[in-house]
Specification:
single chain; elongated
């Protein structure tokens, strides 16, 4: 994968997570209500997760700016996306999960695979510098 391709992946990931963090941080009640999902007993549970997603979006923007220098953030991104996918799919298999989590888990599977692929490409780029 070219440096341009890597940067495109991480610009899209950055925008996706920044927007997602903002939407869930500020408008979580509307999102939950529109899907008929019960809110947790404290807004902080959702807003903290939203803040983490937003911060990862900023990290992915750093990768977009300089993939070689920010390789460690890619590893964290792989772990973040894997963690979300495992939790959602695990609950889906064992019990249940709010339906609106499923499209996000599918998107994160795509990002997970792309991040793993770009990780290899970034290491090759770093070796040539």
């Amino acid at each position: 994968m070219s440096i341009k391709g890597i940067k495109t992946v991480f610009l899209i990931a950055a925008l996706y997570d920044i927007i997602l963090g903002i939407v869930f941080g500020l408008f979580f009640k509307q999102v939950y209500n529109s899907f008929g999902t019960e809110l947790p007993n404290h807004a902080g549970y959702i807003q903290l997760a939203a803040a983490y997603i937003f911060v990862f979006g900023i990290g992915f923007f750093f990768v977009y700016k300089d993939p070689v220098r920010n390789q460690a953030i890619v590893t964290l991104g792989v772990l973040m996306k894997l963690g979300f996918v495992v939790v959602v799919l695990g609950h889906l298999l064992i019990d249940s999960v709010p339906s609106f989590f499923i499209p996000f888990a599918l998107m994160d599977i795509v990002f997970l695979l792309l991040f793993m692929y770009t990780q290899t490409a970034i290491k090759k780029l770093a070796a040539t510098k």
